[in-house]
Amino acid sequence: MRRFKIAVGLILTVGCSDVALAGCADRPEPGVDWQRCNMQMTILQGVDLSGANLSGAFLSGATFRGSNLVGANLQLTELVRTSFENTDLSQANFEKSLSARSLFSSAVLRNARLSKAEFHRVNFAGADLSGADMSEGDFIRADFTNARLDGANLRGATLPRAILQGASLKDATFQNAYLYRLRVEGTDLSQVRDLAQDQLDITCGDDKTKLPPGLIKPTRWPCEY
User: Fold this and answer.
1) Distance of alpha carbon 210 from alpha carbon 203, whole angstroms
2) What is the C-alpha to C-alpha distance for residues 194 and 63, in angstroms, rounded to an integer?
3) What is the pLDDT of residue 22?
4) What is the DSSP letter of 164?
5) Is the pTM value of this prediction over 0.85?
């Protein structure tokens, strides 16, 4: 039997129609249906929630550290100060989810979907986002230090004051992304795709920043002012 803990005082109340739709009191297991359930402050460390349906759930303050959420549906979820540290979220769907100050450090999000998500001040340090779809996502002040974003789709994404120092970005696509004061000091951008000069000119790099062919370093980087 898998060991798990549920925070004392957890409220799992939803409308009668939702109870019929989703088993909010069901134990955590693969494929569990917690759609639109109130799971705030829940402690779910090291559990298997692969393929779970958490669409529209309230997950603020919850802890999923070290758990398995491969292929889980987290569309339209609320994730304020939620912890996914060291969690496997490969192919998980976070489309249009709202997150602030959550922890995804060292998490695995390979081929995850974060399209149109709003993730503000979220910590992705050391996370693996290879092949992730982050198109049109809002990642204001997100920390991607030493993260893997190889092949990530960042078309139309918003990344003002985010941190990409030490990140791996081979074949990551930046077409029409907003990069105001994006921190790329010492970052290797030489193999990114669709990065334009006007995008680069408003980032914060240094002499160790490596650029793709055809682009030149600004006369002075914005963060030097």
Assistant:
1) 13
2) 37
3) 60
4) -
5) yes
List Cβ<8 Å contacts ≥24 apart for 170-175: 174/199
From the first residue on, what is the mean pLDDT of each consecutive set of 10 residues in the chain (225 residues)?
36 38 86 96 96 98 98 98 98 98 98 98 98 98 98 98 98 98 97 97 96 93 77
Q: What is the DSSP letter of 113?
A: B
What is the rounded CA–CA span in Å between residue 212 and residue 194? 10
Cα 144-149-151 angle, rounded to 5 deg: 160
Task: Please compute Rg for the chain using Cα positions.
Answer: 19
**Separation CA 144–CA 107 (nearest Å):** 11
8: Cβ–Cβ under 8 A, 6 or more apart, which residues? none
Task: Provide the terminal-to-terminal Cα distance of the chain, rounded to the nearest Å.
Answer: 58
